[in-house]
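Consider the following input, taken from an annotated entry for 2-octaprenyl-6-methoxyphenyl hydroxylase (Aquitalea palustris).
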Amino acid sequence: MKTTDKQTGRTGNCAGHDGGEHADIIIVGGGPVGALAALRFAAAGRRVLLVEARAKDAPLTDARALALSWHSRTALAAAGAWPDDLPASVIDTVHVSQQGAFGRTRLDCADLKLPHLGVVVDYPALTLAINAQLEQAGVQVWWQTRVEAVNSLGCYASVKTSGAHGDISLTARLVVLAEGGALADSLPGIKRLVHDYQQCAVLAEVTTEQPPAGIAYERFSKQGPFALLPHGDHYMLVWTRTPADAKALQEAADEQVMAELQQAFGERQGKVLAIGPRASFPLALRQVNRVSSGRVVLIGNAAQTMHPVAAQGLNLGLRDALGLADALDGISDPGDAAALAVYAASRKLDSHAVVGFTHGLIKLFDGDSTLVSALRGAGMSALDSVPPLRRAFARHLVFGL
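Applying the prediction step yields:
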């Protein structure tokens, strides 16, 4: 007969693990996706341990500005991780166009009857807000701790850690991987599709003659697609370029980069007045064939990383966290195979649709022939001129599928 330990949630016939610390759920990776999952599980009464490689007080120097859908912002606020004074810039309108050809699409928050389509927030600011909420919610976090290996057994999963707490084996009914994805490569049944775009994303803050006023731009230029995201009184530029172009943009004089951007963008916001230092990182698509292996489940970047076009990667990861919490709500054993199968099925359409959409955009806008350009323009114009289709498209971008 099974007996249940009320402190750990373990059934009697699952005893005999390696010892050491035990939790209902161990989450590996303390970024926004892992932290949101931890907050949701803790609010549901689960005993959660969050394991994060960086030190709690490590300087946050990440240059990224994160574009979050209004749905993502609402989810973080509901978990207490979005304080009222968090500095963020709203997106009310998204203007999509291509250089040197007709056709454009304009998405507006009024189409969905939402206050805003989304927000842009600096990664360090959001991270500090999330860390504060983790502490306030009483979530146990092991900072400066690396997970060296993950193993799934019949009744529990184990992780081997090293770092501030020493070399320790931990056990849990469920392990959630929300890190970069390297740990999943050793799990049975997990295979990862990798496509190197042979491109880099170039990031820089841009000042234009006219302030953003809630308008974000997605522009498919001849050199590569770029986004201009509201960032206070400025814009954050995310420009997809070849590695050689990215290196040249980083090393070029500001005036040269400003002139190139002005030519590609036009004067919708007036003159480009200034551009800040450029950062660059390589782009690749990585997606697993399945999101669970035994009592280990993958969310966020552990499950998929994608091209930044349309700014869908983090939003998809946050929906992973929400979907996992919902799928396990009321389930006594969070590592139950049937419950994890429900989660996997519930996320399959959204994940494959978003990955396919972003990958398809890059392929579609990669050609530069007159015919391809005309077809792209016709598609954007059709989307813009059919309100139900435009609203459905905007809804999918904000809420997923």
